[in-house]
Each structure stands twice: as structure tokens, then as C-alpha cells.
Write a structure and sequence with these properties.
By secondary structure, the protein is of the alpha/beta class. It has ten helices and 14 strands. The chain binds uridine-5'-diphosphate. The site of uridine-5'-diphosphate has 14 residues, from helix 6 and strand 8.
Length: about 325
């Protein structure tokens, strides 16, 4: 297959490119490098451009296409930032995606795998979130992704554009061969922040220990980046035989508190990790854990990294050997 990876210079997109290339597929990467890194584009041709620029989009599809499948990872994705700068989130994530969809239709492309998020669910009232749960986002990031999910349903009904939305819970870890990994500036995610504090690059802060959870810290479902990449591949295959606008929740189904992750990191790095407890971070729900049984059944997808220490090891090795 020839696959277009929008946002292929980013954390999840670059792992996707490696995965696709390992499976023998041809990759074209499109990215504006706002948060991604040119040095992370190691598989496939790189086209620099912006989904907010319709001319960039049209040239991409007309000059580089046709593509058998489009995977769309371009997005602003920080909950806290989205609360402060909602306009950027609605522009990039919603308007930008509409540009992509309209260009796809104009150039005869009908299959899309879209990065969505557990943030569409807001504050769920169940322990394990399946696809039946109401989507009631509590921040502009989640809201922008929910809007796109709804747009994709309408575009399927009206224009026949087929799509799979994959709602990631907490993507983490790195390529075990250490060719690529996670690097955000500024870094806001828990596991890289823990590892940075181990290297004395920053002080670790725990955002809130008064949540209604076992130890008072937030509980999340941590899923290895390569398991996510595998799910995208399966979603692409699914679209070859299914005609609809689908959505699947992707996680391990196990909740780990912030303190659990710190403890597991202590085991991985082999010594104590100091931290301070700070105020809650705006927009953080107490618990987000996936019920991924629908993806297990429909996509025939199972995560391979089920032990949290195994995931953290890959992030730790990457962090010690960062190559870009
Ligand atoms: N968190 C923390 N300290 C950090 C980064 C994150 O305590 O330096 C907490 C955060 O408040 C949340 C959990 O760790 O409860 C996971 O946050 P992350 O940003 O990694 O992912 P999110 O769940 O926001 O997608």
C-alpha cells in the first residue's frame, strides 16, 4: 500500500511510519514541524506543509497521490494548553481536518484512520470506558476531537468517506530499537517527565493527590506506542472490507495511578525518584481506563506490551540514548 501519514514527524506518527515501512508499505509524510521533528522522519518521503493551508493539502494529494490509505495524526494535543488557547485547537484540529477531508474527496480518496482520544469522554461514570459511553468532553482538546468524530460520521453518510477513529488512552514508550522516541517541547507527559527528573533535567511534580482514587492521584491507561501503531494497521485493513465511520477505544484495560507509575519507574531505573505534590492540573479527569474489547473483537487487536515496567523500559532506554 501507499500510505499518507499526516503528522508523521510527531511522536505517534513517526512510530507509525516505521511500522508501515517494516510491513513493506510505501510512506509519504506530511508535517508542519510545529511539534514534530524532521529528524524523526526516517521512513518515506517528507513533504513539509500545513493542513490549515488548502493549497498545501491540494498539492500534496495531487502531486504525491493517489494513496491507498490516509492516516491523520496532525493535531494540537495538550489538555491544559487547549483550555488557555481554544482557538488554536478548533482551528488546527477541526478546520485543518475539514481541509484534509475536502481535499480527500476532491481527489478521490475515501479511507481515513483518524487519531482521536479518551478525552472525548470527559469525566466518565464507569470504571472501564467502552464505545457506548456518552462523549461529554471537559476541555477544548477533547471537544475538538469529538467534533471531528461527528464530522466523519456525516462525511460518511453524505459523501461515502470511510473512517476509523482510534481513541488513544495514554500513549507512551518508545521504539525498542531506539531509532525514534518521545520528545515534546515543553514536555508535559508523565513518563518522560519522570525520566527527565531522574536525569536531573527537571523536578518531578505530581499534579494533585486529592482525587477520589486509591492513592489520591489520577489513574490512566498506559499503552505502548507500537501497540497503537499495530492498531492503526488493523484499522486500515478493516476499512478495506468495511464501509462506515467507526470508532474504537485503545488501551490495555489496566489503570495505573501517578504513584503507581513513579513506583514502576523506580524499579526500572533502580533508585528512588523524588517528587513534590502540586495543585491539580486544569482539565484532568480522575480516572480514564479503556475497555478495548470492541477493538479486540472487530480489529482482532491485542496489545503486546501488557506490563507497565516493559513499557517504561523502552522510554528509559530511549531517554538515555536520544538521537534527535
Ligand atoms: N502528571 C503529573 N506530573 C507530570 C505530568 C503528568 O502528575 O509531570 C499527571 C497528570 O496530571 C495526569 C497523569 O499524570 O493525571 C497523566 O498525564 P499525561 O500528561 O501524561 O497524560 P494525559 O492523561 O493528560 O493525556
Amino acid at each position: 500500500m501507499k500510505v499518507l501519514v499526516l503528522g508523521g514527524a510527531g511522536y505517534i506518527g513517526s512510530h507509525m511510519c516505521k511500522f508501515l515501512s517494516q510491513q513493506g508499505h510505501q510512506v509519504v509524510v506530511f508535517d508542519n514541524l510545529s511539534t514534530g521533528h524532521a529528524s524523526a522522519v526516517k521512513w518515506g518521503e517528507f513533504i513539509e506543509g500545513d493542513i490549515l493551508n488548502i493549497t498545501d493539502c491540494e498539492q500534496l494529494f495531487e502531486q504525491q497521490g493517489p494513496f491507498d490509505l490516509v492516516m491523520h495524526f496532525c493535531a494540537k494535543s495538550l489538555v491544559g494548553e487547549s483550555v488557555k488557547k481554544p482557538a488554536e485547537y478548533y482551528k488546527n484540529n477541526v478546520l485543518g481536518t475539514v481541509n484534509v477531508l475536502d481535499t480527500m474527496l476532491k481527489t478521490g480518496h475515501k479511507s481515513l484512520v483518524f487519531s482521536s482520544t479518551a478525552a472525548v469522554f470527559g469525566i466518565p461514570n464507569v470504571d472501564l470506558i467502552n464505545e457506548e459511553q456518552p462523549r461529554l468532553p471537559i476541555n477544548p482538546y477533547g471537544q475538538s476531537k469529538k467534533m471531528v468524530e461527528d464530522i466523519l460520521k456525516d462525511y460518511h453518510q453524505a459523501y461515502g468517506l470511510k473512517s476509523v477513529c482510534l481513541r488513544y488512552f495514554n500513549a507512551c514508550g518508545a521504539d525498542p530499537e531506539l531509532e525514534i522516541g518521545e520528545r515534546h517541547e515543553p514536555e508535559t507527559h508523565l513518563i518522560p517527565n519522570i525520566l527527565k527528573s531522574v536525569n536531573n533535567e527537571s523536578n518531578l511534580k505530581v499534579f494533585g493527590n486529592d482525587y477520589p482514587t486509591v492513592d489520591g492521584t489520577c489513574v490512566r491507561d498506559y499503552i505502548h506506542i507500537n501497540d497503537l501503531a499495530a492498531a492503526h494497521m488493523k484499522a486500515g485493513d478493516y476499512l478495506a472490507t468495511h464501509d462506515g465511520a467507526y470508532a474504537f477505544n485503545l488501551g490495555n484495560g489496566n489503570g495505573f495511578s501517578v504513584m503507581d507509575i513513579i513506583k514502576a519507574s523506580v524499579v526500572v531505573v533502580g533508585h528512588d525518584i523524588p517528587f513534590t505534590v502540586e495543585d491539580r492540573r486544569e482539565g484532568d479527569p480522575a480516572v480514564l481506563v479503556a475497555d478495548a474489547s470492541y477493538a479486540n473483537k472487530e480489529l482482532n487487536w491485542q496489545p503486546k506490551y501488557t506490563k507497565i515496567e516493559d513499557i517504561i523500559v523502552t522510554a528509559w532506554q530511549w531517554h538515555q540514548n536520544e538521537k534527535f
